[in-house]
Specification:
about 400 residues; alpha+beta; Nucleotidyltransferase, domain 5; 4 domains; elongated
Amino acid sequence: MISLDQWAQIRFLRGQGLSIRKIAEEVGCAKKTVERALASESPPEYSPRPARPTSFDAYEPAVRALLAESPRLNAKVIAQRVGWEGSESWFRKNVAKIRPEYLPPDPVDTLDHLPGHEIQCDLTFAPGGLPDDTGAFRKLPVLVMVAAHSRFAGARILPSRTTDDLLAGMWDLLEHTFTGVPTRLVWDRESGIGRARLCEPVIAFAGALGCKIVQTPPRDPESKGVVERTNGYMKTSFFPARRFTSPKDVQAQLDDWFTTVANVRTHAVLKTSPAEAFATDRAGMRPLPPYTPTFGTRPAVRLPRNYYVTVDTNHYSVDPAYVDRLVTVHTTLHQVILTGPGGETIASHQTIWAQSRTITDPAHQAAAKAMRQQRATTPAPKPSFDIAAADLTVYDRITSSPAKRTTA
């Protein structure tokens, strides 16, 4: 029996005018074999070999019984239940072969993404982490957003995955990368966006943009497949073999990579580059709102005696003149701004991406020192009213009463 490759080679050589003897010498087979191959107009067919018995056969009925009851039961657990003592990898391979027979079908629809309709959002993390302000590598999130129709994408490194930072990152990308607002922004069940329902700041952000923020249902990766594929592309083509020194350096390299590589390559599905296709996508989006949406503003807090407020484990100083008064914290990706009761700015700091740091403005420290010195040298104020002296003769009258003398 000749192989499929030999059959194709024999027919090719015959088409080149070679004799049967020459073909047999070239292919390395008998002339009779060459004659049979030339006489056959269809490729050779092979009947499958009968399966040989294996060590798994004795356990298969018990495995099938467990899969019929729990189709997604872990293979290691199944091995323990049926008493398997052989190779774990061999057992997993055999379980994987028969498991699909017990899983319900899970068909998916082919999604058609209209221009300007959808931008998909997700967080990805670099293997080994990314550097913070101090150069220490941490698990800093990278927000990735992709226009579903054109596959045009951008990314922002974030100091945390809190709601404030997620909203700030989305606005930054919408304003500077996409320059427009789609009909909807699609997220998974990210805690900073919402679990059972969207967080209130997220709802307010969507209202300010005039779009919907939609969360995909559990176990439905296809609904966010465009951004998931971009995440995978970043992990194989961007993060490997790169060196980063700071969050600013990470962002600069991200911007350069998307501009020169990711958005200008010819996309396998689109047959054009995302940058070229984005013109149609952008035309379907609405313009940005005329004002910056409100996000990163926290409820007012009373400034304690140590004149610091805490933001993401870091402590930022405030003018000590506002101790015991209500102050409001406003955060962005780059600044922490504090305002007083009248809305006046009373402190401004650069956002620190490290953790558990104390950031002190020298002016605030000097003001606190001056206030302490003034308090130490200023005499205590005298009361503005007279204090009546106690009449002590009442005790003499009590001790000299007739009842007391009789008892004595």
